[in-house]
Amino acid sequence: MRIGVLCHSGLGGSARVGTELAVGMAERGHHIHLFARSAPLHLRPGLPRIHLHPLVGPAPVTGNLDASWSPEDFDALVKLVAAVAVRERLDVLHFHYAVPFALVVASVRQQLGSAAPVLVGTLHGTDVSAYGCDAKIGLPLARALRAIDQLTTVSECYARLATEVFRLPSPPWVIPNFVDLTRFRPLPDRERRLEDRSGRSRIIHVSNFRPVKDPLGVARIFLRLHRRLPVNLWLIGVGSELPAMRAVLNDGGAEDHVQYLGYQEDVSELLARADLLLMASRAESFCLAALEAMACGVPVLASAVGGLTELVEHGRHGFLYPLDDHDEAERLGVELLSDRDGYAQMCRQAVCRARQFDREQVIGLYEDLYRDLMARRIPVESWVGNPSLVAGASEA
Prior knowledge:
Elements: E1 2-6, H1 13-27, E2 31-36, E3 50-54, H2 71-88, E4 92-96, H3 101-112, E5 118-123, H4 126-129, H5 138-146, E6 150-153, H6 156-166, E7 173-174, E8 201-206, H7 215-228, E9 231-236, H8 242-251, E10 258-262, H9 268-273, E11 276-278, H10 288-295, E12 300-303, H11 308-311, E13 318-321, H12 326-338, H13 340-354, H14 359-376, H15 387-393
Parallel strand pairs: 1-2, 1-4, 2-3, 4-5, 5-6, 6-7, 8-9, 8-11, 9-10, 11-12, 12-13
Helix pairs in contact: 2-3, 2-15, 3-5, 7-8, 7-12, 10-13
């Protein structure tokens, strides 16, 4: 198949999933055309059968979601996608994150008509919970999404939320996020320990440090645990809330027990060396960081929101606490890190749970979806060589 993938360039789950799905499909022999503002951070250069179509050159690493596109950049992306769709005869266009990509592919279909590829969209989080409720963009976004051939999302709770917010005629299909179990796995050379050589347990937090991840909540929970237990905190990622988080940690006297590791191209080794993943998210469509930690045998302590409640079974793969209940988070964290036997069992159960989200199995679900949509598509008269279509698209 010839597949176009649209995704964001920076940090965040939607960019990770979109890029890794593109790579997985290319490994299966499909030809992928990847569209983004700039080269996605997670894309390794030189991969066979992946053709990158960026609007601009390399961009700095940022935790911000680049969803505010100018009209000029939006139009440029529409023209670029339409031109490639015509020239390469794309079978499928699949966007990850609705803003602005649902509106982009809707414009491509309007331009190409029945010659447009099959349209697939995956909703990932704030494109539903934030932009879907926005007075300015919510309504046009809903119209665009209702015209997509097939919508998917990553959890049951977000399928229900998207159906309600956008008044969809039917819920999106749920295809969960996935993990590469050949990379994210427990360390083979040691039994899991609850402390490093300094005698301190290692708590890790991985995110883009946006307000929805509530990094300040992570800092406050860590300070509570720090007063009760010998613990260190590893922070992976960059984002707008990181300076304020650092201030809270320093004011709490924990500056000597925090490592700021910044953006890491591969977090698998760091996750495997950690003892606990700490998340305080205010909303989560899935939480890819939690899945990757579990695959490494690392339990999760997280707020009981969104898709986290479907991924993590409380008391089995980690502990979930009510949103903003830092007293309960502290109690559960102390319990988890103090009970060695219970902790070891939870590590094993986390690994078993992560195996249900194996990369190859989930990518196969997307591949089957593409084939099914193409098989059900009504044949149209060949548009190859149609001067009006080619001229309209080649302006890009």
